[in-house]
Write a structure and sequence with these properties.
Blueprint (H helix, E strand, L loop, with lengths): L1 H29 L6 H4 L6 H11 L5 H13 L5 E3 L5 E3 H36 L4 H15 L2 H21 L3 H4 L17 H40 L2 H8 L4 H31 L1 H6 L5 H10 L3 H29 L7
Antiparallel strand pairs: 1-2
Length: 339
């Protein structure tokens, strides 16, 4: 019951924050330009057609009325209409949901792999402090942490192009099947059939962008985990456990590891939301059509409805991720109460 009350209380706090955030963003987005600028520059569009389109988009109302009209429609499931290619209008919800599905599948795999590997490397580096393993892990983490994401993505893409070229030049395409290192979105690919073709098509398409995002996140997780683990290993209760004669593995994993995970779980919840909404460069390099690409197109065309749909989805994901992180605190450390 305490857990239910805690969740409801957090949601009650998050809803006003979300409303204020959407209003401020709506005002800023609405004042950045003219959504009908492209249509106005078209000499084939009449003034009556422009007025009708402006009315459909709610541009003939004041900003406060437009916001509450948008909010009422959004809460009822109508996310508004978007300015599509040319003169056409398209509903926002299918575009945002489709883009979210593409990016979510990419980010989930990359973040889980980065978290697992980063935590393992961080724990190992802390337990073997100042050893060769610690120095190698620290050097790799700082190297990846200092590299911009576009550099990692472009290097991996160029490497994939070179490898696929070697496969074709050596005449091994029939033996290896479709190249495993893809540089295009999986939505544009089709497989001939069989498990091998399925893996070569879809695993290959996900591999490179997943590695790009995972590399940067791994660096942050491993450094946080190492620092947190070192602090925990120096705690009084850990020294007491060692003095009682417990084995080293039991001290590390039973007493220190769970508490050392708390800062990393916070970082994961924050990083997940930021990566989900900010995988623009990775999607651009590998020609994916996800949330990053959708945001760039919406900003370019000053498409208010799409930008607001994007914002609500990303903000809601961040709120849910932080709520899950708070619940994990109580699991990792019983001293933390959620009641």
């Amino acid at each position: 019951m305490n857990l239910v009350i805690y969740v409801l209380r957090r949601l009650a706090i998050s809803i006003p924050v979300l409303l204020v955030g959407t209003f401020l963003c709506f005002v800023m987005v609405a004042g950045t330009g003219d959504p009908l600028g492209e249509l106005r520059s078209n000499p084939n569009i009449s003034a009556a057609a422009l007025a009708q389109t402006a009315h459909q988009l709610g541009l003939d109302q004041n900003i406060v009325t437009r916001y509450f009209t948008w909010l009422g429609h959004f809460l009822s499931g109508d996310w508004g209409i978007s300015i599509a290619q040319g003169n056409a209008l398209a509903p926002v919800a299918p575009k945002v949901i489709a883009a979210f599905g593409v990016t979510f599948k990419l980010v989930v795999g990359a973040e889980i792999l980065a978290l697992v590997i980063g935590v393992l490397v961080g724990v190992l580096a802390a337990v073997r402090q100042y050893s060769v393993i610690d120095y190698l892990a620290t050097t790799l983490a700082f190297l990846l942490f200092s590299m911009p994401i576009f550099c990692v993505a472009i290097v991996l893409k160029n490497y994939a192009i070179e490898v696929n070229g070697w496969v074709r030049d050596l005449g091994l395409t029939d033996i290896l099947g479709n190249p495993w290192l893809r540089t295009t979105s999986p939505e544009s690919l089709k497989y001939d059939g069989g498990i091998g073709g399925f893996l070569a098509t879809y695993v290959g398409a996900y591999l490179l962008p997943t590695l790009s995002i995972m590399a940067i996140s791994f660096a942050a997780y491993s450094r946080f985990q190492r620092a947190s683990m070192l602090e925990t290993l120096g705690s009084d209760y850990v020294r007491t456990a060692r003095a009682k004669g417990l084995s080293g593995s039991r001290v590390v994993f039973r007493h220190a590891f769970r508490n050392a995970l708390i800062p990393v779980s916070t970082l994961f919840s924050v990083n997940f939301g930021s990566v989900l909404g900010g995988a623009i460069i990775t999607e651009t390099v590998f020609n994916w059509h996800g949330m990053g690409t959708l945001l760039v197109e919406a900003v370019t065309k000053n498409d208010t409805q799409v930008m607001m749909g994007w914002l609500v989805v990303i903000a809601s994901t961040v709120i849910v991720a932080n709520l899950i992180a708070d619940l994990i605190y109580g699991i990792l450390d019983p001293r933390i109460r959620v009641g």
